[in-house]
Design a protein that fits this description.
single chain, alpha/beta, Aspartate Aminotransferase, domain 1, Aspartate Aminotransferase, domain 2, 7-stranded mixed sheet, 18 strands, binds pyridoxal-5'-phosphate
Length: about 475
C-alpha cells in the first residue's frame, strides 16, 4: 500500500507528456508548459455540461456539484490507492475516499478480488446467502454492545430504519437530533430549528411535512443543558436521541465528555434510546467505532460507508432484545430487495476482514492525520491565517475562524471566501479536499508521508 501500483499512471501527473499533439484540449502546450502545476479540467467541464442535460444539477448527490466552492466538479475516470485520476488525466491526492468507505485506499485488491469472484456467481437472488451471516458475525464480533445486525443499502436507510425501530420499541414518537448532524435524507432528519428557542423543528426542505417535522426536536451539539430542557418539556414522549458521536458533517466536531456521558445518563433515566449514527465513525475510529473510542454504550448503532467497502451497504445493530422487535421476528417493518446483496456483502466482508486482521491500521491513520494537522497548523500559523483545526482519529477539518468549533453555529462562522481560495488552491496543486467547509476529510491508509508533505507544501503555496 501507499504506492500507486500502475507505473504508467505516474506519467499522467503531467498532462503535457501524455499526448503527441500541440494542443491539450483547446490550450496550446507551450502555455501549459509555462505554467507550473497547471492542470486541465476541460473534459470534466464538458462532461458536466452533458450530465446537466439529463441529471438534475448534473449529479446524483448535491455536494458533488461544487456549489459551495464554485466551479465545475471533476469527473473521475479511475482511482488507485491514495490517488484519483480524472477524465483530463490529472492525478489528485484524495482526502475524501468516497466520503469515507475506502479507508484502505482506492481499488484495494482484497476487496476488488472478492467482488469480482462473487459477481461470477450471480449478483442478486432475493434469497438468503451464507455471506450475509459471515459479515454479520464479523461485525458483531468487532463492535461492542451489539448482538444482531440488519443490512440495508445506505446510511440513510440505516438511520431511517433505526428511528422506526426506536419508536416501535419505546412506543413513543418524538426524537431529538442535533443541528449540523447529518443522518441521511429521510424526512425526519431534514429539519431545522423552529422559531422559538426550545420548540419543534420545521422542515428544511420542501416536501417534508409539518406533521413529520413536529416529531423531530432540535438541539445544539455539545449543549447538554439544551437537551435536558427539551427532554423535560417533552417528558415521556421521546423515543430516541440520535447523534453523530464524533460529528463529521459540520466539519469534524468532538463531543465533550460532559455532553456525551450526560446524554447516556439522561437516556437511561428517561427511558430514551441513545442512537449512535456511526455511518462515518464505524470501523474508522477503531474496530469498535465511536462506542469503543469514547467508552460508551449506545442502544442502537447505525453503519454505512466503511462497512460496505465501497459498495452500497448500510446497517443498524443493537442488543438482541431491541433487534427482536424487527420484522419478521417482531412487528416493526423493514425490508429491502437488494439488502444483503452478495456483491455488497463480499466487499464489506473483505474490508472488515482486513481491518480486523490489521487493527494497527487505525493507529497508523491517526498518526498520519496528526502529522497532517501539525503540518497544516504550522503553515497557517506562520502565514498568519486565522484558523481552527479539529481532529479525531482519521477525521480532520480546517476552519477559517477565530473561535473553537464545537457545534453548527461555530462551524458556520468560518470564512467561506478563504475556504474557497484554499479548496481551489489545493486542487490546482493536485490535492482533492471535500468541496465544502462543512465536511470532514477522511484519510485513507494508502496515503504516504510524501503525499502528506506535498499536501502541507501546497498549503504554503496558497497563502
Ligand atoms: C454519509 C452519512 C449518512 C448517510 O449515508 P448515505 O449512505 O449517504 O445515505 C448518514 N449519517 C452520517 C453520519 C453520514 O456521514
Amino acid at each position: 500500500m501507499g504506492k500507486c501500483s500502475i507505473s504508467e499512471k505516474k506519467k499522467r501527473n503531467n498532462p503535457v507528456s501524455s499526448s503527441g499533439s500541440d494542443y491539450v484540449g483547446s490550450i496550446r502546450r507551450t502555455d501549459i508548459e509555462n505554467t507550473e502545476h497547471y492542470m486541465l479540467y476541460q473534459r470534466s467541464s464538458a462532461l458536466f455540461t452533458e450530465a446537466k442535460k439529463y441529471i438534475p444539477g448534473g449529479v446524483n448527490s448535491p455536494v458533488r456539484a461544487f456549489k459551495a466552492v464554485g466551479g465545475d466538479p471533476i469527473f473521475v475516470k479511475e482511482a488507485k490507492g491514495a490517488y484519483l485520476y480524472d477524465e483530463d488525466g490529472n492525478q489528485l491526492i484524495d482526502y475524501i475516499a468516497s466520503w469515507g468507505p475506502l479507508i484502505l485506499g482506492h481499488a484495494h485488491e482484497p476487496v476488488i478480488n472478492a467482488v469480482i469472484e462473487k459477481a461470477k456467481k450471480g449478483t442478486s437472488f432475493g434469497m438468503p446467502t451464507e455471506i450475509e451471516t459471515e459479515l454479520a458475525q464479523l461485525a458483531v464480533s468487532m463492535v461492542p454492545n451489539i448482538d444482531k445486525i440488519r443490512f440495508v443499502n445506505s446510511g440513510t436507510e440505516a438511520c431511517m430504519s433505526a428511528v422506526r425501530l426506536a419508536r416501535g420499541y419505546t412506543g413513543k414518537d418524538k426524537i431529538i437530533k442535533f443541528a449540523g448532524c447529518y443522518h441521511g435524507h429521510s424526512d425526519s432528519f431534514l429539519i431545522q430549528a423552529g422559531s422559538g428557542a426550545v420548540t419543534f423543528g420545521s422542515p428544511n426542505s420542501p416536501g417534508v411535512t409539518q406533521g413529520t417535522a413536529k416529531d423531530t426536536l432540535l438541539a445544539n451539539y455539545n449543549d447538554l443543558e439544551g437537551v435536558k430542557a427539551l427532554a423535560e418539556a417533552n417528558k415521556g414522549e421521546i423515543a430516541a436521541i440520535i447523534l453523530e458521536p464524533v460529528a463529521g458533517n459540520m466539519g469534524c466536531i468532538i463531543p465533550t465528555d460532559e455532553f456525551i456521558y450526560g446524554l447516556r445518563e439522561l437516556c437511561t433515566q428517561e427511558g430514551i434510546l441513545l442512537l449512535f449514527d456511526e455511518v462515518m465513525t464505524g470501523f474508522r475510529l477503531g474496530k469498535g467505532g465511536a462506542q469503543e473510542a469514547l467508552g460508551i454504550d449506545a442502544d442502537i448503532v447505525m453503519f454505512g460507508k466503511v462497512i460496505g467497502g465501497g459498495l452500497p451497504v448500510g446497517a443498524f445493530a443493537a442488543r438482541a432484545e431491541i433487534m427482536s422487535h424487527l420484522a419478521p421476528e417482531g412487528p416493526v417493518y423493514q425490508a429491502g430487495t437488494l439488502s444483503g446483496n452478495p456483491l455488497a456483502m463480499s466487499a464489506g466482508l473483505a474490508m472488515l476482514t482486513e481491518l480486523n486482521n490489521k487493527p494497527e491500521v487505525f493507529a497508523s491513520l491517526a498518526q498520519k492525520t496528526e502529522y497532517l494537522h501539525k503540518g497544516i497548523a504550522k503553515v497557517l500559523t506562520e502565514k498568519g491565517v486565522t484558523h481552527q483545526i479539529n481532529r479525531y482519529g482519521s477525521m480532520i477539518s480546517v476552519h477559517f475562524c477565530e473561535d473553537p468549533v464545537v457545534d453548527f453555529a461555530s462551524s458556520a462562522k468560518g470564512n467561506n471566501d478563504t475556504f474557497k481560495k484554499y479548496f481551489h488552491g489545493m486542487l490546482e496543486q493536485g490535492v482533492y479536499l471535500p468541496p465544502s467547509a462543512f465536511e470532514s476529510y477522511f484519510l485513507n491508509d494508502a496515503l504516504s508521508y510524501t503525499d502528506l508533505d506535498k499536501t502541507i507544501e501546497a498549503v504554503k503555496t496558497i497563502f
